[in-house]
Request: fold
Amino acid sequence: MATLPIALIQTRTPASPAAAFAHVEPLIRDAAAGGAKLILTPEATNFLIKDPAARAAALTTQDRDAVIGNLRALAQELGVWLLIGSAIVKSGHEGDDRAANRSLLIDDAGAVVATYDKLHVYDVDLPTGERWRESAAIRPGDGAVVADTPWARLGLTICYDIRFPHLYRALAKAGAGMISVPAAFTVPTGDAHWETLLRARAIETGCWILAPAQAGLHEDGRRTWGRSTVVGPWGEVVAKLDHDEPGVLFAMLDFDAVTRARNAVPQLTHDRAFAEPA
Reply:
């Protein structure tokens, strides 16, 4: 099987689309210059805005979003595949004015070849007092997605999805050799759970886990964990940005490692039906 040079982009996305693209573009160019053929950005690459009125003003459809359009052109210019970890766009569902938190896979001709809307929305009350109700603004997606690339199949997930292992198992059983986890993790949950969850999903699936992250103190006042990470199919951390500053993380994926991990522990073939507990 193929090997693949990749890069994860760690961002501190600003609160306007124009500034967001100006922030991420040079990082993507650095990644391409470093030899990456697949480049992945974090969740909410097009903007991070808490204020409802400002958020509504920035929100548009996928085909009209300036950041998505500019990133498609950039992928074509650089001749790379680009995963926009997610963009916040109008969902297009009549009667529901909430946005979609949408991951978009762009090929090296600038075409959108796959999209995925985040299935699990982040509604939590953290011990620190932080309270998040993503469902108020984001419409959950309806289906899992595995996309073909020239190297291996890519399963698409976003952030809070990492806590739902059945989704990752379904992606692996559908042929994914790598799974993306673009994120904007909070600091309390990032510190406690980020690396453990990423490694667990890799071990359970025998997949490469690719997790580009938002990082640091943002214009809208939120703080995100950073620590973008690549985990190998055996559960080992292969590469990591051990900080919360913007940056580029390079790694080389060997898809023979997927075969070795799954041959050693063939858990994806060992499912058994069972009665649910009373």
